[in-house]
Amino acid sequence: MIVLVGSEKGGVGKSTIAAHVAVRLSMTGKPTILIDADPQATSWAWAQARNKYKPDSLRVETTKMTGDIRPGIKDLAASYGHIVVDCGGADSVALRSGMMIAHRLIIPSKVARRDLETLKHVSTLVHTANEKRESEGQSQLLARVVFNMTRALPNFWTRIEGAKKVVESLGLGVCPYPIVERVSYDDTQYQGGTVFDDKTDQKAIDEMERVLKSLLRKENTE
Protein backbone atom coordinates (compact mmCIF):
# COMPACT_ATOMS: atom_id res chain seq x y z
CA MET A 1 0.00 0.00 0.00
CA ILE A 2 1.21 3.50 -0.85
CA VAL A 3 -0.07 6.15 1.56
CA LEU A 4 0.43 9.85 0.95
CA VAL A 5 0.13 12.31 3.85
CA GLY A 6 -0.12 15.90 2.67
CA SER A 7 -2.03 19.16 2.42
CA GLU A 8 -1.38 22.82 1.69
CA LYS A 9 -1.39 23.94 5.32
CA GLY A 10 1.56 23.73 7.65
CA GLY A 11 1.34 22.95 11.34
CA VAL A 12 -1.49 20.44 11.14
CA GLY A 13 0.46 17.37 12.26
CA LYS A 14 1.30 15.71 8.95
CA SER A 15 4.62 14.30 10.08
CA THR A 16 3.17 12.98 13.35
CA ILE A 17 0.41 11.19 11.46
CA ALA A 18 2.86 9.89 8.81
CA ALA A 19 5.04 8.39 11.55
CA HIS A 20 2.05 6.69 13.18
CA VAL A 21 0.89 5.34 9.81
CA ALA A 22 4.36 3.95 9.11
CA VAL A 23 4.69 2.27 12.52
CA ARG A 24 1.16 0.87 12.40
CA LEU A 25 1.70 -0.58 8.92
CA SER A 26 5.02 -2.07 10.00
CA MET A 27 3.07 -3.90 12.71
CA THR A 28 1.50 -5.98 9.92
CA GLY A 29 4.87 -7.65 9.43
CA LYS A 30 5.48 -6.22 5.96
CA PRO A 31 8.62 -4.15 5.26
CA THR A 32 7.68 -0.47 5.53
CA ILE A 33 9.50 2.65 4.39
CA LEU A 34 8.75 6.29 5.20
CA ILE A 35 9.64 8.77 2.46
CA ASP A 36 10.27 12.35 3.55
CA ALA A 37 9.34 14.65 0.66
CA ASP A 38 9.10 17.75 2.86
CA PRO A 39 12.01 20.25 2.72
CA GLN A 40 11.75 20.63 6.51
CA ALA A 41 12.71 16.92 6.82
CA THR A 42 10.73 16.39 10.03
CA SER A 43 10.05 12.72 9.29
CA TRP A 44 13.71 12.14 8.44
CA ALA A 45 14.76 13.63 11.80
CA TRP A 46 12.15 11.47 13.56
CA ALA A 47 13.55 8.35 11.93
CA GLN A 48 17.12 9.21 12.92
CA ALA A 49 15.96 9.70 16.50
CA ARG A 50 14.17 6.36 16.34
CA ASN A 51 17.34 4.58 15.25
CA LYS A 52 19.28 6.23 18.07
CA TYR A 53 16.87 5.99 20.99
CA LYS A 54 14.69 3.02 20.03
CA PRO A 55 16.97 0.47 18.34
CA ASP A 56 14.79 -2.42 19.51
CA SER A 57 11.52 -0.98 18.22
CA LEU A 58 9.76 -1.98 15.01
CA ARG A 59 11.98 -0.95 12.13
CA VAL A 60 10.80 1.73 9.72
CA GLU A 61 13.22 2.49 6.90
CA THR A 62 13.42 6.10 5.77
CA THR A 63 14.64 8.00 2.73
CA LYS A 64 14.30 11.46 1.21
CA MET A 65 12.83 12.41 -2.15
CA THR A 66 12.05 15.63 -4.01
CA GLY A 67 10.31 16.57 -7.23
CA ASP A 68 8.50 13.83 -9.14
CA ILE A 69 8.54 10.98 -6.62
CA ARG A 70 6.90 8.38 -8.87
CA PRO A 71 10.10 6.79 -10.26
CA GLY A 72 11.56 6.44 -6.77
CA ILE A 73 8.37 4.93 -5.38
CA LYS A 74 8.18 2.44 -8.25
CA ASP A 75 11.75 1.33 -7.50
CA LEU A 76 10.95 0.87 -3.79
CA ALA A 77 7.69 -0.99 -4.40
CA ALA A 78 9.60 -4.17 -5.26
CA SER A 79 11.17 -4.27 -1.79
CA TYR A 80 8.53 -2.79 0.50
CA GLY A 81 5.00 -3.91 1.24
CA HIS A 82 4.03 -0.47 2.53
CA ILE A 83 5.27 2.97 1.47
CA VAL A 84 4.31 6.10 3.42
CA VAL A 85 5.09 9.56 2.04
CA ASP A 86 5.22 12.73 4.13
CA CYS A 87 4.68 15.46 1.54
CA GLY A 88 4.71 18.53 3.75
CA GLY A 89 2.40 21.53 3.66
CA ALA A 90 2.52 22.99 0.17
CA ASP A 91 1.26 22.49 -3.36
CA SER A 92 4.41 20.81 -4.62
CA VAL A 93 5.58 18.56 -7.44
CA ALA A 94 5.98 15.81 -4.85
CA LEU A 95 2.36 16.15 -3.72
CA ARG A 96 0.96 16.23 -7.25
CA SER A 97 3.07 13.35 -8.49
CA GLY A 98 2.31 11.38 -5.34
CA MET A 99 -1.40 11.72 -6.02
CA MET A 100 -0.83 9.90 -9.29
CA ILE A 101 0.66 6.78 -7.70
CA ALA A 102 -0.67 6.53 -4.12
CA HIS A 103 -3.58 4.34 -3.03
CA ARG A 104 -4.58 6.62 -0.14
CA LEU A 105 -4.23 10.32 0.56
CA ILE A 106 -4.54 11.40 4.20
CA ILE A 107 -5.18 15.14 4.56
CA PRO A 108 -4.73 16.37 8.15
CA SER A 109 -6.56 19.58 9.00
CA LYS A 110 -7.59 21.64 11.96
CA VAL A 111 -11.21 22.74 12.14
CA ALA A 112 -10.27 26.44 12.01
CA ARG A 113 -11.81 28.31 9.08
CA ARG A 114 -8.41 29.32 7.67
CA ASP A 115 -7.38 25.67 7.54
CA LEU A 116 -10.63 24.62 5.89
CA GLU A 117 -10.16 27.31 3.23
CA THR A 118 -6.97 25.63 2.03
CA LEU A 119 -8.88 22.41 1.37
CA LYS A 120 -10.66 23.96 -1.61
CA HIS A 121 -7.50 23.81 -3.69
CA VAL A 122 -6.57 20.38 -2.33
CA SER A 123 -9.96 19.14 -3.49
CA THR A 124 -9.24 20.52 -6.96
CA LEU A 125 -5.88 18.73 -7.02
CA VAL A 126 -7.52 15.44 -6.02
CA HIS A 127 -10.22 15.84 -8.66
CA THR A 128 -7.63 16.61 -11.36
CA ALA A 129 -5.47 13.66 -10.31
CA ASN A 130 -8.41 11.28 -10.43
CA GLU A 131 -9.40 12.48 -13.88
CA LYS A 132 -5.86 11.73 -15.10
CA ARG A 133 -5.82 8.38 -13.30
CA GLU A 134 -9.10 7.39 -14.90
CA SER A 135 -7.83 8.35 -18.35
CA GLU A 136 -4.80 6.12 -17.72
CA GLY A 137 -6.91 3.20 -16.51
CA GLN A 138 -5.87 3.55 -12.87
CA SER A 139 -8.10 3.14 -9.85
CA GLN A 140 -9.21 6.26 -8.01
CA LEU A 141 -7.13 7.86 -5.28
CA LEU A 142 -9.03 7.60 -2.00
CA ALA A 143 -8.58 10.97 -0.29
CA ARG A 144 -9.84 11.64 3.22
CA VAL A 145 -9.52 14.52 5.63
CA VAL A 146 -8.81 13.82 9.29
CA PHE A 147 -9.40 16.56 11.83
CA ASN A 148 -6.32 16.84 14.03
CA MET A 149 -5.50 18.72 17.25
CA THR A 150 -9.14 18.88 18.31
CA ARG A 151 -10.34 19.38 21.87
CA ALA A 152 -11.99 16.75 24.03
CA LEU A 153 -14.86 19.06 24.96
CA PRO A 154 -18.57 18.37 24.29
CA ASN A 155 -19.18 21.81 22.77
CA PHE A 156 -16.25 21.33 20.38
CA TRP A 157 -18.19 18.64 18.55
CA THR A 158 -20.39 21.38 17.07
CA ARG A 159 -17.31 22.86 15.40
CA ILE A 160 -16.22 19.43 14.17
CA GLU A 161 -19.63 18.71 12.66
CA GLY A 162 -19.64 22.10 10.95
CA ALA A 163 -16.17 21.50 9.54
CA LYS A 164 -17.22 18.06 8.33
CA LYS A 165 -20.06 19.58 6.30
CA VAL A 166 -17.66 22.08 4.73
CA VAL A 167 -15.23 19.33 3.71
CA GLU A 168 -17.96 17.07 2.33
CA SER A 169 -19.30 19.97 0.26
CA LEU A 170 -15.88 20.04 -1.43
CA GLY A 171 -16.24 16.40 -2.46
CA LEU A 172 -13.70 15.06 0.01
CA GLY A 173 -14.27 12.20 2.43
CA VAL A 174 -13.90 12.76 6.16
CA CYS A 175 -12.58 10.38 8.80
CA PRO A 176 -15.41 9.90 11.35
CA TYR A 177 -12.89 9.98 14.21
CA PRO A 178 -11.00 13.19 15.04
CA ILE A 179 -7.60 13.20 16.72
CA VAL A 180 -7.55 14.97 20.07
CA GLU A 181 -4.59 17.19 20.94
CA ARG A 182 -2.69 15.09 23.48
CA VAL A 183 0.77 15.64 24.98
CA SER A 184 1.57 11.96 24.42
CA TYR A 185 1.75 12.50 20.64
CA ASP A 186 4.39 15.18 21.06
CA ASP A 187 6.24 13.44 23.89
CA THR A 188 6.63 10.16 22.03
CA GLN A 189 7.69 11.83 18.75
CA TYR A 190 10.61 13.56 20.42
CA GLN A 191 12.78 10.43 20.50
CA GLY A 192 11.49 8.72 17.39
CA GLY A 193 8.50 6.98 18.92
CA THR A 194 4.74 6.86 18.59
CA VAL A 195 1.98 6.10 21.05
CA PHE A 196 2.10 2.52 19.72
CA ASP A 197 5.70 2.24 20.95
CA ASP A 198 5.33 4.06 24.25
CA LYS A 199 2.15 2.24 25.34
CA THR A 200 1.46 4.55 28.30
CA ASP A 201 -1.52 6.50 26.94
CA GLN A 202 -4.20 3.92 26.17
CA LYS A 203 -6.69 6.58 25.08
CA ALA A 204 -4.25 7.82 22.46
CA ILE A 205 -3.48 4.28 21.30
CA ASP A 206 -7.17 3.40 20.92
CA GLU A 207 -7.85 6.72 19.22
CA MET A 208 -5.06 6.38 16.67
CA GLU A 209 -6.01 2.76 16.00
CA ARG A 210 -9.59 3.80 15.16
CA VAL A 211 -8.43 6.68 13.02
CA LEU A 212 -5.95 4.66 10.97
CA LYS A 213 -8.33 1.76 10.44
CA SER A 214 -10.87 4.23 9.06
CA LEU A 215 -8.35 6.02 6.86
CA LEU A 216 -6.62 2.95 5.45
CA ARG A 217 -9.50 0.63 4.73
CA LYS A 218 -11.21 0.71 1.37
CA GLU A 219 -14.57 2.19 2.31
CA ASN A 220 -14.93 5.26 4.51
CA THR A 221 -17.58 3.85 6.81
CA GLU A 222 -17.92 3.76 10.57
TrEMBL record:
Name the domain of life this protein comes from. Answer: Bacteria
Source species, please? Marinobacter antarcticus
| Residues of the CobQ/CobB/MinD/ParA nucleotide binding domain | 4-154
| Pfam families associated with the record | CbiA
**What is the name of this protein?**
Plasmid segregation oscillating ATPase ParF
